[in-house]
Amino acid sequence: MEVKLKTLMKDSISEVLSGMFFSPVEFSDDFELEEVNDFFKKSIIIAKILVESEILFEIYAAVQTEIMKDLTLNFTGKSNASEEDIQGSLMELLNMAGGEIVADFFKSRNTKLHIPEISSQSKFLNCISDKNTDKIFVKCNLLDGAIFFVGSLKKISN
Amino acid sequence: MGKLTIMVVDDSSPMREVIIKTIKAAGYSSENFIQASNGKKALELMHENWIDLLVTDYNMPDMDGLMLIEEMKKDEVFSSVPVLIITTERRDELISMFMEKGAAGYLKKPFKPEDIREKIIEILGERICNGSEAEDFDEGLDF
């Protein structure tokens, strides 16, 4: 399941970033926690989206604010981007990628794609270190930086 | 004919900008655009403005796109406004529900300018693109 979801994550992220944000994309299969810690020394922005189905699948995206600003300018076509624009663009990136994943993986009629939200560094790190969930790590390399995606899988107990 | 008034409803402000930019790139650069961040606000604005086309997201807080269509269908005037749903949702049963409730068209995100143009022509007819206000469509335009 994780392998298929990881492939879907890459495919959907790639489609959205290249099609809507006009950014070439390259993936690294894994990333080290050290790399993430270094990353947090800069100004970053984090968002998440939840897919609720027979499992809970939460996807976090963490990116440097400056990188996301450039992507936002590509996305909106505007000459400047406010903080709200930058946050909204990251959430929309997750929303579109999440929609693709739901369509291709979650067949249950009861699947719900929640509205994306801005998250925090502590929640992102808690997600990474949570021993009760399976994780999918995807590092998306862009021209000037990277976006770290973490998918967290949890079975719903009845 | 005069300018069209197109309302774009999406809880994401950048996505509203992108949709408007894309519609403009598709040849409708001189139309009037009104923005709303959810269904409730869209209904409020509809009482103040005549709308020729409503382009809405599905998944929004307060009132989603489906509830918005349902509310519009209860109103004698609003029920005639064509609705194009643009959403990340691709599940067949949900798309069927959009159409059953009265949506005039459906488009998935991510989308291309030509997809929007085709849908608008499908919904409003060729006359819109042949009107004096419509501009040439640049096939190679990156939005």
Give the strand order, joined by hyphens, for the main sheet of chain B: 2-1-3-4-5
Termini distance of chain A? 20 Å
Roughly how much helix do the residues of chain B carry, as a percent range? 25-40%
Q: Report the biggest beta sheet of chain B as strand number plus sense, adding barrel if it closes.
A: 5 strands, parallel
Biggest chain contact: A-B, 27 and 23 residues
How large is the count of helical segments of chain A?
5
Question: If you had to describe this structure to a student in words, what would you say it looks like?
Answer:
Chain A is of the alpha+beta class and 158 residues long. Chain A is built from five helices and seven strands, in the order H-E-H-E-E-H-H-E-E-H-E-E. In chain A, strands 1, 2, 3, 4, 5, 6 and 7 form a seven-stranded antiparallel beta sheet that branches. The longest helix of chain A has 23 residues. Chain B contains six helices and five strands, in the order βαβαβαβαβαα. A five-stranded parallel beta sheet of chain B has the order 2-1-3-4-5, with helices on both faces. In chain B, helix 2 packs parallel to helix 3. The longest helix of chain B has 13 residues. The C terminus of chain B is likely disordered. Chains A and B meet through helix 1, helix 3 and helix 4 of A and helix 1 of B.
What is the compact description of this entry?
The complex is a heterodimer of chains A (158) and B (143). Chain A has 158 residues and is α+β, with helices and mostly antiparallel strands.
Name a few traits of the molecule.
heterodimer, A: alpha+beta, B: 143 residues, globular, disordered C terminus
Mind sketching the topology for me?
The complex is a heterodimer of chains A (158) and B (143).
Chain A: H1 2-19, E1 26-28, H2 33-39, E2 44-52, E3 55-64, H3 65-76, H4 83-105, E4 112-113, E5 117-118, H5 121-129, E6 134-141, E7 146-155
Antiparallel strand pairs in A: 1-6, 2-3, 2-4, 2-5, 3-7, 6-7
Helix pairs in contact in A: 1-4, 3-4
Chain B: E1 5-9, H1 13-25, E2 32-36, H2 39-46, E3 53-56, H3 65-73, E4 83-87, H4 92-101, E5 105-108, H5 113-124, H6 126-130
Parallel strand pairs in B: 1-2, 1-3, 3-4, 4-5
Helix pairs in contact in B: 2-3
